[in-house]
């Protein structure tokens, strides 16, 4: 019997899962943030802790893991890998793979070892793997570097739409009452001056209000979300074209709170419309399970396993992990 380890290390938590070759979960571990871009030593300690918890719960040593997959937030550029390679090597696993957490999210959302993923939470990111195994990332570095559509940008668009409406530069919007209530102001004028006087930043939690307003028929909110969908579709389209996947049949996995929790009718059709201009056999899939599952599947792929439907059925029982869980 072979054992596989998957680790998903993000900006808020780190999850580690060990399964057998049938996809049955043996044990798991959890610790704090594992993004080295926040703090290298913090990330090192938390990845080590989550991994050790899972190994101890399973009664295994690192050399008993056939393959380990690490999906790490912040694994974006060669400069990042120069930090991450020695960090992960020190854990003692004989065989392992390090990828950006976008790739593990992709693998979690499809039954194929290739495809494309768009992640949209506070920020956005897009990545893909083609059938030949080549990978590519597009985005993830912020608005100044070409991104649009993450919660941060959507919140700013919502906020500025309220300001523009108040000043008379655009029509009235139901975002006004929603944002004033959310932030606790009595008027746009009060909010405007308070933000300026105290150098406040627009909070990302305003982004979901766009879906509320759009559901009420607000034209401005609907237009912002349509633009977001188109922009996310353009990112996926760029990855597809650069990886030569136009004629392939594959899944476009949508991950992150904005595209998985927001009302799909306002964004998903526009994402798919852009993508199908170049890839007619692309199918949307919304990620509903923990991305750490993708790290396990990547480890199995790298070990040369051909995964059956039964393995996918079993491994998708791994959903919400809290603390350390051991399954006998």
Give a short overview.
The chain is of the alpha/beta class and 328 residues long. It has 12 helices and 10 strands.
Q: In terms of topology, how is this protein built?
A:
Blueprint: E1 3-9, E2 14-20, E3 25-31, H1 40-58, E4 65-72, H2 78-89, E5 96-100, H3 101-108, E6 115-120, E7 124-129, E8 135-138, H4 151-167, H5 175-183, H6 188-197, H7 209-215, H8 219-242, E9 250-255, H9 257-261, H10 268-275, E10 282-286, H11 292-302, H12 309-315
Helix pairs in contact: 3-11, 4-8, 7-8, 8-10
Question: Which short descriptors sum up this protein?
Answer:
single chain; 328 residues; alpha/beta; Nucleotidyltransferase, domain 5; 2 domains; five-stranded mixed β-sheet; 12 helices; 10 strands; 42% helix
């Amino acid at each position: 019997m072979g054992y596989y380890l998957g680790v998903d290390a993000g900006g808020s938590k780190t999850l580690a899962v060990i399964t057998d070759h049938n996809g049955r979960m043996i044990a798991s571990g959890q610790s704090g943030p594992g993004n080295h871009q926040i703090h290298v030593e913090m990330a090192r300690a938390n990845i080590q802790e989550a991994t050790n918890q899972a190994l101890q719960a399973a009664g295994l040593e690192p050399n008993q893991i056939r393959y380990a997959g690490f999906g790490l937030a912040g694994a974006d550029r060669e400069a990042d890998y120069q930090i991450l390679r020695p960090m992960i090597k020190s854990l003692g696993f004989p065989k392992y793979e390090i990828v950006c957490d976008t790739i593990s999210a992709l693998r979690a959302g499809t039954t194929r070892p290739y495809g494309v993923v768009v992640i949209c939470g506070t920020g956005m990111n897009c990545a893909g793997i083609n059938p030949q195994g080549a990978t590519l990332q597009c985005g993830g570095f912020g608005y100044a570097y070409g991104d649009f559509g993450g919660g941060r940008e959507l919140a700013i668009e919502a906020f500025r739409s309220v300001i523009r409406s108040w000043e008379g530069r655009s029509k009235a919007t139901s975002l006004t009452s929603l944002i004033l209530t959310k932030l606790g102001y009595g008027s746009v004028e009060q909010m405007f001056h308070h933000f300026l006087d105290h150098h406040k930043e627009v909070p990302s939690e305003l982004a979901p209000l766009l879906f509320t307003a759009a559901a009420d028929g607000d034209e401005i909110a609907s237009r912002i979300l349509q633009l977001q969908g188109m922009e996310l579709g353009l990112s996926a389209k760029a990855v597809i074209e650069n990886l030569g996947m136009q004629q392939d049949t594959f899944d476009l996995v949508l991950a992150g709170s904005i595209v998985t929790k927001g009302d799909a009718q306002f964004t998903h059709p526009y994402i798919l419309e852009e993508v199908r201009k170049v890839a007619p056999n692309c199918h949307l899939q919304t990620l509903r399970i923990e991305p750490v599952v993708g790290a396990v599947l990547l480890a199995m792929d790298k070990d040369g396993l051909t995964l059956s439907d039964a393995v996918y059925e079993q491994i998708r029982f791994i959903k919400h992990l809290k603390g350390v869980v051991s399954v006998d």
